[in-house]
Structure formats: structure tokens, C-alpha cells
Amino acid sequence: MGIFTISLDFELHWGGFEKWPLNKIDSNTNQNDYKKYFLNTRVVIPKILSLFNKYEIHATWATVGMLMHANKNQLKENFPSLKPDYKEKKLSAYHYIETEGIGESEEKDPFHYADSLILQILATPHQELGTHTFSHYYCNEQGQNIEQFRADLQAAQKAASRYDQKLQSLVFPRNQFNDAYLKVCFEEGIKVVRSNPLDWFWNILSTQNESIVKRLNRGLDAYFPIGKNNTYSLQDLKKEVNRPICLPASRLLRPYRRKELFLNNLKISRVKSEMERAASNGEVYHLWWHPHNFGNFSEENLIDLEAILKHFRYCKAKYQMQSLTMVEISNNFSSKNA
Question: How many CB atoms lie within 10 A of CB 271?
């Protein structure tokens, strides 16, 4: 029986504070495009949840822990004692807070708090609250170390406890997968981690000066068969002692682009084809994206998403394909390999 899983990297502005200025005004529109982008994201998230509910989709929301607060006092109470000491200081969320500042509450600063959205996620059936670390932590950047990472995960768990949640699934920010940190993940309660596709262009070592060739190949692979087969059986997964299960990503759902209608249609067809291959072969298909990817052309992105979810419904009817969260897959895998 095939499995369809969705994981979302839920981060708002914490996902790129060092490169997305919130105080820059466009001279043509007299607006801040990034503020508009993230405000649109906040509007589209309930619509995504509505589609998930309509099609009975189980999804993991890998959420930056800093979003799990209603105000600054709550956030600061959960700061870890050890913070990442990146060589590039601009990568630190704490450095951003000190130098740029954030608002006092979600109402005043909807870009850095998401308490109300998290409550909506948890109120929607079959949704899992996972972690994208507390501070959008970069595990492959120079300067940080494994104990700082542990402190970050502990802070994330503490933040999630406000919602009576225990975080069990993790997605590494910027896909900086670090095998050496998996033992710490396990020790801090993580059962399953999203790992990268096996293709060389998904081996991401740093946010700084990444090869344009890698980025180009990742983009092309959304439309053309450049990478390796990206569906897999549960039997292909390895469970190592004192390590979480590593659940490879299959496909990044890239956002709609108005000037690329042919490529957009090709991208959706590719997702459907891969999903059906997984369904017919009894394999896993793991789709992921950031909710803010729907911040531009929101309605067009939602139309594309519904087309994908309709195809899941077809695969469910024809092949008995299941929709599972990351931790549900982990539990399924563990029970079969007990």
C-alpha cells in the first residue's frame, strides 16, 4: 500500500531574515513586498488547512519554535542558554532580534509570531506539529556546535509544550542535513527526520555562496527527469540504534509562476506521475514546500495544490494509497520492524 506524506517548512520571516528586509519600501508601489508576501501567507494557511481537511490529508507542519509564542515575553522565556555562535553573525535569529528588533506580540508583529495559526493547525484533523528547530538553526554553518544544537531542540520542545505537544518530527532548516546530529535529535525526542533526496545537487553544506550549478539542477529537476528515482518503499529505510528514521524528501512543490504556464503544468503533471508510481508500487511519496511559497499568486497555487490532492484521492480509490504524517510513517515502520 502506497503512502503519500506532506511536510511543510513553516517559518514566516524566520526562514530568511538575513536576506528578506521588512523595512524596504518599493519606490514603484510604495509598499514593502516582503510584508505583503508574509501577510498573504497568513491568509493562505487556513485555506491550505481547509483543503487538507476536505481531502483527508495528514501533514506535518515543521514549525520554527520562535513562532510558537503570542508575545515577546513568552519568546524570551524560552530562549536557550546556549545560542548558535555562527561565524556569519547575520545568520543568527538572536542577532537579528538584537540589531533589527521584533514587535511585542503577534498582533503587532505577524511576521515573527504565529500562535493563532498554530492553534488552527492543531484544530484541523490529522495535522502534526513538528519542528524546524527553535531558531531556524543551521547545522552545517561554521561556528555552531552540537551542544548548541541540543539546546536549540530543548527550547523547541519547551515552546511546543505550551500547546501540550511533544515534537517528534524534524526538518533541518535550509535542508542542511547533518548525520552527526541525529543522535542528539533522538535523545531530544525526535523519532523521524526528513532527509534530502540522494541526488548530488541536494547535498547542501552552507547557506553561503552555494554553487549556482546545484541550484540550477534543483530547479530543472522539478520539470525534467534529472535526478534519481524519488519514490521508495518502507523496507528501503534503515533504522539505526539511537537514531531517528530518516525519511527522504521526494519532491519540492515549487510555487506557481505566471510567465511559465507550460513549465507549471509540466511540474504538476510530474508530481501526479510520481505519486501514482508510488501508489501502484506500494511506495512512499514525500512532497514538501514552505507555506510562504504560496504568498505570491496564492489562488493559483491553491488551484495547483487541489489538483494534486484530487489525484491523491484517485490514487487512494484505485490503489488504496494512504496519507500519513511523518511520525505516523515512523510508527508504521517501527511496528513492522519490531
Answer: 21
